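subagent[fold] <- orchestrator: predict structure for attached chain, return tokens only, no commentary.
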Amino acid sequence: MPSTPLQLGFFSGGLGGWEVAVLVLLGVLIFGKRLPEVGKSIGKGIVEFKKGLAGVDDDIDAQKKAQDAKRLEAQKTDSPSINTDTVAEADPAGPDSSSKPA
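subagent[fold] -> orchestrator:
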């Protein structure tokens, strides 16, 4: 059986034309003249939900930026500076004494 993107329990093959027509007919019978109001309220609810998700995303991004800033600040203060005396002691012959093929 091929899978479809939208499957409901009693619509095993997905939603086709007749199923959508039956759902619309049931909506009209149940809600009657209030159907446009119900549609508007559902639409407003979806918009508010998306705004809420956008707010959460903004909060997450702000926290990530704050953590990155703290991490960078910690790296600046904790990172040891390169001591040139130690480097010269490690290689007393200097940087020109690299092994070259003869």
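orchestrator: received. Logging for downstream: The mean pLDDT is 76. The longest helix spans residues 35-78.
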